[in-house]
C-alpha cells in the first residue's frame, strides 16, 4: 500500500505476487514476502521474503510509476 503521510489515506495498493519464487526454490511453506525497504536517496524500493534466494530492487521516478 502507498499511504499519504498528509491524509493517512491509502493512495494505491501494490501487488508483487508474481515475484514469489517457484515452490522448488523455497525452503518451506512459510516463505512469504516480508522484507520491504525504501531508500529515498536513490528512489529504490527493495523487496525480499523469508527464505527467499533473491532480493528485488525497483527504481521509480515518482509515485505515478508504481504498478497498481
Rounded to the nearest angstrom, the distance between the terminal CA atoms is 9 Å
Number of helices: 0
Number of domains: 1
Beta-strand segment tally: 5
- Are there runs of 5+ residues with pLDDT below 50, and where? none
| Overall average pLDDT | 79
How does the major sheet shape up?
A: 3 strands, antiparallel
What coarse outline follows from CA principal-axis ratios? globular
Protein model, in words:
The chain is mostly beta strands. It has one domain (2-21, 33-65). Helix content is 0%, strand content 32%. It is built from no helices and five strands. The chain has strands at residues 2-3, 10-12, 33-39, 44-49, 56-59. Strands 3-4-5 form a three-stranded antiparallel β-sheet, with no helix packed on it. A two-stranded antiparallel ribbon has the order 1-2. It is globular, with a radius of gyration of 14 Å. The N and C termini lie close together (9 Å).
Could you outline the blueprint of secondary structure elements for this entry?
Blueprint lengths: L1 E2 L6 E3 L20 E7 L4 E6 L6 E4 L9
Core attributes:
68 residues; mainly beta; 3-stranded antiparallel sheet; two-stranded antiparallel sheet
Amino acid at each position: 500500500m502507498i499511504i499519504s503521510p498528509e491524509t493517512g489515506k491509502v493512495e494505491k495498493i501494490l501487488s508483487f505476487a508474481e515475484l514469489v519464487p517457484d515452490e522448488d526454490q523455497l525452503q518451506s511453506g512459510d516463505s512469504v514476502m516480508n522484507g520491504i525497504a525504501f531508500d529515498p536517496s536513490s528512489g529504490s524500493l527493495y523487496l525480499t521474503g523469508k527464505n527467499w534466494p533473491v532480493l528485488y530492487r525497483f527504481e521509480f521516478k515518482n509515485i505515478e510509476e508504481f504498478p497498481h
